Amino acid sequence: MTYDSNTVDRMRAQLQASASCRSGGEGEAVMNYETGIEVENGNPLLEGGEEDRRSRRNLILMALGVLIAIVIIAYFVNRSGNAAEGADAKKEQAPTVTVVVPGRTTVEGTISATGTLAARRELPVGVAGEGGQVVSVLVEPGQWVGAGQVLAVIDRSVQVQQAASQSAQIQVARANADLAEANYQRALKLVDKGFVSKADVDRLRATRDAQLAQVRVASAQAGVLGAQMRRLNIVAPAAGLVLERRIEPGQVVSGGSGVLFRLAKGGEMELKAQLGETDLAVISPGVSAEVVPVGTQKAFTGQVWQIAPVIDPASRQGTARIALSYAPELRPGGFASVTIKSGTMVAPVLPESAILSDTQGSYVYVVGADNKVQRRPVKQGRVTPQGIIVAEGLSGTERVVLRAGGFLQPGETIKPVSPRG
User: Fold this and answer.
1) Which of 64, 74, 167, 348 is deepest in the core (most CB within 10 A)?
2) Whole-model pTM?
3) Is 132 left (phi over 0), alpha (psi -120 to 50) or beta?
4) Cross-strand pairs, 390
5) Angle between helix 44-93 and 5-23 (nearest 10)
6) Average per-residue pLDDT in the chain?
């Protein structure tokens, strides 16, 4: 049996009235009524209440579901917004870094090295003869001398007497030779008359020839003594500059006394520069160089005139000899730096601050299109007045971090700016 909503409301009102009667008025007996409505298909109130509760529960669950969905949507919207704000904030907080595009520059290659100054042709001078006691020394270090000029004189008193004796021997030999010649000529005149035999003539001719030979022997011995006397003068073998003097008057010297003077032939100097194998391979005799001795800012121009044919296996270096004209500032034994020109090349050039190094080698930071820095290995070339030549690793069109590369990490986002000026 089905009840409409009006019937249900009337039945609910009757039940409430019955409950009021049971609670009664004053002095009346409380009457209990067992009032009920029998229905064939169950209590409509119970049935109606259960449906209401189920409906309310469903409504509550739906409301909770909608609320949870709203909360989730709001969370993701807020998260995306915060992420965007964080990205913007991070972008705003990116460090400002100066970058430069090196391009490709035509540079004149130079090689820097150090070395020792020396005479290009050093002439050691000592005693050429028997030696003796030094009588006088005629030159001082720093003086210019000519070829054959006497540098020192050794006592020759004994040799003078020997030369005088030999000169007398020559005169005796000549006298005997003259006598032998006269006897021979007289014998030739008498042989035709029969007063002198031909055997006597042959003997006189032999005597004459022997005496003439004695003259020549005595003259030769006199020449030997003269040469020995001349060798008692210590002379310069060639024109040049006196670098060192190791002899004093009164000193006794001989052939075993060693070097007594050192001369620089023609006053020419040189720098013996120590270069690595790579640098030696790119230079050749005739290239120009500038030498600056220690203690002065003056530069002297010279030329490479010889390159060592061997490399020191210990240091892996060789010697390049640079010829220099004489100058008072160029003192043999002194230390000097040299810059050797090694031709021109086209390559990127970066300042020293842009190139970093670690255990893996040299590298630079290159800025990509997304303003993130990436490590790029490079190979350094020679150092020039414009900067360091990058032999390998860059094409010249990249944006390279100019400074502060040591504070960056690969993949870090930066705010690149061009250098001022």
Assistant:
1) 348
2) 0.55
3) left
4) 380
5) 110
6) 82
Please give the structure tokens belonging to residue 136: 């006088």
**Residue of 139, 102, 46, 177 whose CA lies nearest to 355:** 102
Q: For 214-267, what is each residue's pLDDT tens digit?
A: 999 989 988 888 888 888 899 999 999 999 999 999 999 988 889 999 999 999
Which amino acid makes up residue 390?
Answer: V
Q: Is the CB of residue 365 less than 8 Å from the CB of residue 401? A: yes
Q: In what order do the strands lie in the sheet with 122-125?
A: 122-125, 261-265, 240-245, 144-145
Confidence bin at 77 (pLDDT 50/70/90): low
Task: Give tens-digit pLDDT for 336-383.
Answer: 999 888 777 788 999 888 899 888 889 999 999 898 999 999 988 777
Given a cut of 90, whether residue 305 has pLDDT beyond it is yes
Output the six-digit token pair for 409: 């990490």
- Residue 41 pLDDT: 47
pLDDT band at 18, cuts 50/70/90? low
Q: What is the CA radius of gyration of the chain?
A: 60
Q: Do residues 141 and 245 make contact, with C-beta atoms less than 8 angstroms apart? A: yes
**H helices of 94-156, where?**
none
- Establish how many alpha carbons lie within 13 A of residue 41's alpha carbon, considering only the half-sphere containing its beta carbon: 6
364 neighbors 405 (Cβ within 8 angstroms):
yes
List residues bridging with 374 in a β-sheet: 366
CB 118 within 8 A of CB 245: no
SS3 324: strand
Residue 226 φ then ψ, to 5°: -65, -40
Token pair of 327 as six digits: 């100058």
